[in-house]
């Protein structure tokens, strides 16, 4: 089954003013939708984070991929490596991953697997070895935030909205407001574990928010805190000690494998990461140092779904727990995460997702339901989702109109506070 064409569409998705260690989310999150068209008349889909670097590289790659067989994923990977392997490809210090190659592998692999699944009339989960579970657990993902809906409304609210769509617009800067956000999100989606994005407010407030969540949801609800590596080792030890027995895991409180390893010797809470161990090349040092207990995979930056399956095996071999990281995303990414989450033999924790924060959608039928905190593997061959072309065009027009080309949370924060600067370590 040969590739005859590839459509690459940049889109902008409304995103509320969420806070993190790197600043503030812009009113739009950028994504790229890839469609691989084949000579069988089958089209495969994928979705990855939007950036000019990734968009330009995909555009350059297109002519090299035309004529390739979607089943020959090793050949395709070699081709991508030959073309882009030499480029400077750093992860960066931001909470999100900015590498090129791994995102290219992922974008092309997922769309090829979607084609293969459609050709064989089998879901992608079957191409990954079949189901280990039928439905995949997700965690609530709370953010400190300013008031506002994002998108065209920016920091304004849609006064007609109800339920979670209303609640997601509320300011959340204090422990009580975080508890309100958690209650609204858990009521709407039934999440049974809760992650709080930290690194945005002073540590004392984030710690008090965790205590308030424990009081509101009870000691049996798993809680996680993710300061995105902005805390000093001293701060992470101080608050870690207070959160022993309270947190399910402590996600990237400090920066780098060495400090994570030092922290793990001082604090009795499992450490998780999507920042210090983010590639196969990082694994030897991770194992040597003992930098984390849990690796949060992400098929977008671990190089695809099959690479994430390989990572799962390595995690099992070396006694690492496994779960998944997320960024702002739509339904194609959600479908890919669910197929992977259903296939993974050793899934230890509910997965992260930003999905409730995005009101827009690009797939037919609207948003994929999250019920009782679980997502069922979509029906149908391949990823089991199809593109809503009208929505795609609408979101592409938003991309053209919004003027954003790259994610830059520092610049967004400076619109609110001109003196604000990203720091590698803030507290
Ligand atoms: O969306 O602000 C955000 C998150 O901070 C995201 O960029 C991170 O990559 O969710 C992520 C994380 O777990 O670090
Ligand atoms: Mg994280």
The dominant shape is globular
Indicate the CATH architecture of the largest domain.
Alpha-Beta Barrel
Number of spatially distinct domains: 2
Number of helices: 14
Helicity level, as a percent range?
25-40%
Mean pLDDT: 97
Number of strands: 14
User: Tell me about the biggest sheet?
Assistant: 7 strands, parallel
Rounded radius of gyration (Å):
20 Å
Along the chain, the helix and strand elements come as EEEEEHHHHEEHHEHEHEHEHEHEHEHH
What is the CATH class of the largest domain?
Alpha Beta
Helices and strands: which structural class? alpha/beta
The strand line-up of the biggest sheet is 7-8-9-10-11-12-13
CATH topology of the largest domain: TIM Barrel
GO molecular function, one term: racemase and epimerase activity
EC number: 4.2.1.40
Pathway: Carbohydrate acid metabolism; D-glucarate degradation; 2,5-dioxopentanoate from D-glucarate: step 1/2
Organism: Kriegella aquimaris
Descriptive notes:
By secondary structure, the chain is an alpha/beta fold. The chain is 38% helix and 15% strand. The protein has two domains: 3-122 and 388-401, Enolase-like, N-terminal domain (Enolase-like, domain 1), CATH 3.30.390.10; 127-376, TIM Barrel, CATH 3.20.20. It has helices at 52-65, 73-84, 101-120, 124-127, 163-167, 175-189, 203-217, 233-242, 256-266, 283-289, 305-317, 331-343, 389-402, 409-416; strands at 3-14, 19-20, 23-24, 28-38, 43-49, 135-137, 140-142, 194-197, 223-226, 249-251, 271-273, 294-297, 321-324, 374-376. The longest helix has 20 residues, at 101-120. The model has no long low-confidence stretch (mean pLDDT 97). The structure holds D-glucarate and magnesium ion. Magnesium ion binds next to loops. Residues 175-270 form the Mandelate racemase/muconate lactonizing enzyme C-terminal domain. This is glucarate dehydratase. InterPro entries: DgoD-like, Enolase-like_C_sf, Enolase-like_N, Enolase_C-like, Mandelate_racemase_C, Mandelate_racemase_N_dom.
């Amino acid at each position: 089954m040969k590739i005859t064409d590839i459509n690459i569409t940049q889109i902008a998705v409304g995103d509320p003013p969420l806070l993190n260690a790197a600043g503030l989310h812009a009113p739009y999150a950028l994504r790229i939708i890839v469609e691989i068209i084949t000579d069988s008349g089958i089209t495969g889909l994928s979705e990855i984070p939007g950036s000019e670097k990734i968009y330009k590289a995909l555009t350059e790659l297109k002519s090299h991929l035309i004529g390739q067989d979607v089943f020959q994923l090793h050949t395709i990977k070699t081709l991508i490596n030959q073309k882009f392997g030499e480029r400077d490809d750093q992860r960066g210090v931001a909470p999100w991953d900015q590498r090129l190659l791994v995102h290219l592998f992922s974008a092309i692999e997922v769309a090829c697997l979607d084609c293969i699944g459609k050709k064989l009339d089998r879901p992608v989960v079957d191409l990954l070895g079949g189901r280990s579970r039928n439905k995949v657990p997700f965690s609530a993902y709370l953010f400190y935030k300013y008031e506002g809906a994002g998108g065209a409304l920016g920091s304004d609210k849609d006064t007609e909205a109800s339920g979670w769509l209303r609640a997601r617009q509320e300011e959340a800067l204090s422990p009580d407001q975080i508890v309100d956000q958690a209650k609204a999100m858990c009521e709407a989606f039934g999440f049974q574990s809760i992650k709080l994005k930290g690194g945005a407010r002073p540590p004392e407030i984030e710690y008090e928010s965790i205590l308030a969540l424990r009081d509101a949801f009870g000691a049996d609800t798993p809680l996680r805190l993710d300061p995105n590596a902005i805390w000093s080792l001293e701060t992470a030890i101080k608050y870690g000690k207070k959160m022993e027995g309270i947190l399910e895991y402590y996600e990237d409180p400090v920066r780098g494998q060495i400090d994570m390893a030092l922290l793990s010797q001082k604090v009795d809470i499992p450490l998780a990461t999507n920042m210090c161990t983010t590639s196969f090349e990082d694994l030897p040092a991770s194992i040597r140092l003992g930098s984390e207990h849990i690796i949060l995979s992400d098929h977008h930056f671990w190089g695809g779904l099959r690479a994430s399956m390989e990572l799962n095996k390595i995690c099992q071999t070396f006694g690492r727990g496994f779960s998944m990281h997320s960024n702002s995303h739509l339904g194609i990414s959600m479908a890919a995460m669910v197929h992977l989450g259903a296939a993974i033999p050793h899934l230890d924790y509910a997965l992260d997702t930003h999905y409730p924060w995005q009101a827009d959608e690009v797939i037919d039928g609207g948003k994929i339901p999250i019920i009782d905190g679980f997502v069922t593997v979509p029906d149908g061959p391949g990823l089991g989702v199809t593109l809503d072309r009208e929505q795609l065009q609408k979101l592409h027009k938003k991309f053209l109109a919004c003027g954003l080309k790259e994610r830059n949370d520092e610049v967004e924060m400076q619109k609110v506070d001109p003196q604000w600067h990203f720091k590698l370590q803030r507290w």
